[in-house]
Amino acid sequence: MAAEAGMLELPFVRDDQLTRCMRLRFQSLQQKNVKPQDGEKLLHPNEHVYRVDFIRQHNLRFLRWDMKLERPGKVTVTGTSQHWTPDLTHLMNRQLLEPVGIFWKKPGAKEVECNEADAQEFGERIAELAQIRKVMYFLLSFTEGLEPAQLKGSVVFKA
């Protein structure tokens, strides 16, 4: 949790089971030589499903992203409007939210950079969605050599 009073820091938690299920969906389609549903989003090898659990849902005001990358690279965070069910309803492209958060670290840099306007708008949207959600799912895409184990990320709100 965030150290300052009145702050709520909610971490991105890697959902390996859901990532694995989405990868199995892709493999199943390939093996059967079947096309995905029109508009279906299939997981690329560099994409992983993460979740944020809202331990508090109301009166949250977005403050900042806390993204730490252990090495140079880039991560793109895409929110989804998907509510996954036990039968794993397929993720559709129309359920991907905009804007996305893009965070990168250049070689030799200590700080992680981002497009601040998009990151701010995206954070505010998450705060709005938290009012009606207990959990929110995200697709994180890792590029430029970055791997999931090299990311520690969270969203910080004023509670």
Task: Describe what you observe in this structure.
The protein is an alpha+beta fold. Helix content is 20%, strand content 34%. The chain has two helices and nine strands. The protein has helices at residues 16-32, 116-130; strands at 7-11, 13-14, 47-53, 61-69, 73-79, 101-105, 113-114, 135-143, 151-158. It has a six-stranded antiparallel beta sheet with strand order 2-3-8-5-6-7. A three-stranded antiparallel beta sheet has the order 1-9-4, covered by helices on one side. It is globular, with a radius of gyration of 16 Å.
Helix-and-strand structural type? alpha+beta
Individual helix count: 2
Order of helices and strands: EEHEEEEEHEE
Give unreliable regions as ranges: none
The radius of gyration computed from the alpha-carbon positions, rounded to a whole number of angstroms, is 16 Å
Average of pLDDT: 90
The rounded distance between the terminal residues' Cα atoms is 12 Å
Number of strands: 9
- Tell the overall outline: globular
Largest sheet: 6 strands, antiparallel
Report strand %. Answer: 25-35%
For the biggest β-sheet, the strand order reads: 2-3-8-5-6-7
Helical fraction: 10-25%
Fold topology:
Elements: E1 7-11, E2 13-14, H1 16-32, E3 47-53, E4 61-69, E5 73-79, E6 101-105, E7 113-114, H2 116-130, E8 135-143, E9 151-158
Antiparallel strand pairs: 1-9, 2-3, 3-8, 4-9, 5-6, 5-8, 6-7
Key terms:
34% strand; 20% helix; 159 residues
Entry summary:
By secondary structure, the chain is an alpha+beta fold.
